[in-house]
Amino acid sequence: MSATNRATMLEKLADLDAQHAVAVAGGGEKYVARHKDRGKLTARERIELLVDEGSAFLELMPLAGWGSDFTVGASMVTGIGVVEGVECMIVANDPTVKGGALNPWSLKKSFRAGEIAEQNNLPTINLTESGGADLPTQKDIFIPGGRGFRNLTRASARKQPSISVVFGNSTAGGAYVPGMSDYVIMVKEQAKVFLAGPPLVKMATGEETDDESLGGAEMHSRTSGSSDFLALDEHDALRLARRVVARLNWRKRGAAPQAPYAEPDLDPEDLLDLIPTDLKEPFDPRDAILRIVDGVSTGSTAGPGNEVAFDEFKPLYGSALCVGWARLHGHEIGILANARGVLMSQEAQKAAQFIQLANQKDTPLLFLHNTTGYMVGAEYEQGGIIKHGAQMINAVSNSTVPHLTVIMGASYGAGNYGMNGRAYDPRFLFTWPSAKSAVMGPAQLAGVMEIVARESAEKKGQVFDAEGFQGIKDMVEGMVEEQSMPYFLSGMVYDDGVIDPRDTRTVLGICLSVIDNQPIEGAMNFGVFRL
Question: Which helix (DSSP H) or strand (DSSP E) does residue 166 occupy?
């Protein structure tokens, strides 16, 4: 354990709290105050009243848009909450940010929320109050935005309910969110749902009209039939939403976790001590695993046959990758964790076999990243590192059991792919504040550029200006360093959130519970392995 590691991680966590506070602030004090002066609840207050009292709300992608010109959080709050005992995907527009208008990051965030709901068979509750598209960025929104409406109708066809609670404006394309939802609740004297507001109607047709007769909650509840329930106020609307969920006759389709289970034998608090300040320095992932998975402490009520918390597989072969079986909140899981940064042929083959075994017994997989990628060099190329790495990636790609990914430290090069990075569609992916992801480390990338530039100059018979190139190296190294940091990647929605390492067990427990809404079926076959 290292006091230096802990101090560094606590600094990162304090910064993470500050970044999350920016997202929670929404449009800022002025616009939040104006919103509340109108007698309205904020997006997070609506969610708090919607979910079951005392239950957890797992917020997803809170830093979407970080580092862009848009407000952190992308004018939307999304996450998984329990409503009347049912796990639901909740999507709430934040009207304090440009009236809840959708920007390109909002769109990306909402699509990811829809993907999670589809993969895990979750009902979706939209807490709607949005002025539609952010018009200055309409070129980035209009064409791809239609996918959101398509997804609503396809969800309904899958018998995956959608509920829209309309608290305010839901105009233009935004009108189709309630228009395509299975259940619609509108708040009296607040909800305004129309394809075009009074000014546009007048410009288009010359007709004089007003908000209420054109798209008010009473009109839609009494005349058009677009509203199923007329709520007296916001609290009543949330009460009605809970009643709708209570009557969905919803049942989980997956297996129930084993109960009871023991808490970890080792203290999760110590996770802060594990990650070295220099990610080039390896650490033993077993120290993390035993602080995340169910324990078998003396006097625990763990089930029979669970005498050890982590049953390691092939421990003497390919030792730079640690794999094995464990339980987490009573759920059986397989774990792949980088024990040393590099992946070599033995590690790749071991991983491929282990993934096949997990599919054979319908067991979810958890990938814990701290890798610099696959080994390079003449010896390793001649030994078949490409085909062995391809076997691992083949197994990851064609595995059909649910995958969870946590990037603890480095996640560079094709190691990110082999360890089930975002491109390989894990059900959920989270990062620790210590994480970094890129093609390679900043110094290595800048060094490669210098070597290529030097060789190019020599081929042309020119003298290479090493001193002059140093400025380019410094710029590239700084850029790659910034772009490999967790906030930057989270802002681009390349993960589902940056989390405190001490919360890892809880977050993964929620995810595994959500996964159990669907049956788990492992792959029956795989693609061709280049043996």
Answer: strand 162-171
> Does some domain include residue 273?
yes
Beta strands per DSSP E along 26-123: 57-60, 76-83, 86-93
Return the closest-CA partner of residue 179 out of 126, 117, 142: 126
Beta-carbon contacts of residue 284 (< 8 Å; ≥ 6 apart) = 339
Reading the chain (531 residues) residue by residue, the pLDDT tens digits are 678 999 999 999 999 999 999 999 999 999 999 999 999 999 999 999 999 999 999 999 999 999 999 999 999 999 999 999 999 999 999 999 998 988 999 999 999 999 999 999 999 999 999 988 776 788 788 888 888 889 999 999 999 999 999 999 988 777 889 999 999 999 999 999 988 777 777 777 888 888 888 889 999 999 999 999 999 999 999 999 999 999 999 999 998 899 899 999 999 999 999 988 888 888 899 999 999 999 986 444 444 455 789 999 999 999 999 999 999 999 999 999 998 889 999 999 999 999 999 999 999 999 999 998 898 889 988 888 999 999 999 999 999 999 999 999 999 989 999 999 999 999 999 999 999 887 766 777 667 677 777 778 778 888 877 777 787 777 877 776 777 789 999 999 999 999 999 999 999 999 999 999 999 999 988 877 765
On whether residue 255 sits in a domain, the answer given is no
Burial class, 138, CB count within 10 angstroms (exposed 0-12 / middle 13-18 / buried 19+): middle
Q: Does a structural domain hold residue 526? A: no
Residue 346 and residue 397 in one domain: yes
Q: Would you say residue 520 lies in a domain?
A: no
Tokens of 494: 């390349």
Query: Same domain, yes or no, for 449 and 503?
Result: no
The range of the structural domain enclosing residue 92 comes to 3-246
- The CATH number that applies at residue 496 is 3.90.226.10
* pTM of the model as a whole: 0.92
